[in-house]
Design goal:
By secondary structure, this protein is mainly beta. Strand 6 and strand 7 (71-82) form a beta hairpin. It has a 5-stranded antiparallel β-sheet, with no helix packed on it. The protein has a 4-stranded mixed β-sheet with strand order 1-7-6-5, with no helix packed on it. It is 0% helix and 54% strand. The radius of gyration is 15 Å and the shape is elongated. The protein has no helices and 9 strands. It has strands at 3-4, 13-15, 24-29, 33-39, 48-53, 56-68, 71-82, 93-96, 101-107. One of its GO terms (molecular function) is unfolded protein binding. Belongs to the small heat shock protein (HSP20) family. It comes from Caenorhabditis japonica. InterPro entries: A-crystallin/Hsp20_dom, Alpha-crystallin/sHSP_animal, HSP20-like_chaperone. This is SHSP domain-containing protein.
Length: 111
């Protein structure tokens, strides 16, 4: 599985296949926090697994067959991203809101 490296630049972005428009997500990386919001509208909380392994974040979204007006569909997304060196990996959290946005955030190391 490829690892996508993320710059520590505040304008850095992640390639996310479910994102509307161009599939690129803006990453907020300030001196206070790191945060990214990913479109996960096709998935429920039990379909999402976010893990941290050192300075890598592993995101796995999967749902089984669901019937739609066009037939059955299943979806699966698996991405690994490198986290910035100045965040504390132990503080990484994820939250799926009611609009289907998966927000991943982390605190910075105290300077």
């Amino acid at each position: 599985m490829p690892i996508i490296s993320i710059s520590t630049d505040a304008a850095a972005s992640w390639d996310w296949p479910l994102q509307h428009n161009d599939g690129v997500v803006k990453v907020t990386n300030t001196t206070e926090k790191f945060e990214v919001g990913l479109d996960a509208g096709f998935f429920g909380p039990n379909d999402i697994d976010v893990k941290v392994n050192g300075y890598e974040i592993i995101i796995h979204l999967r749902h089984d067959d669901r019937q739609t007006e066009y037939g059955f569909v299943n979806r699966e997304v698996h991405r690994t991203y490198k986290l910035p060196d100045d965040i504390d990996p132990a503080t990484v959290t994820s939250h799926l809101n009611s609009s289907g946005v998966l927000t991943i955030s982390a605190k910075k190391f105290a300077m």
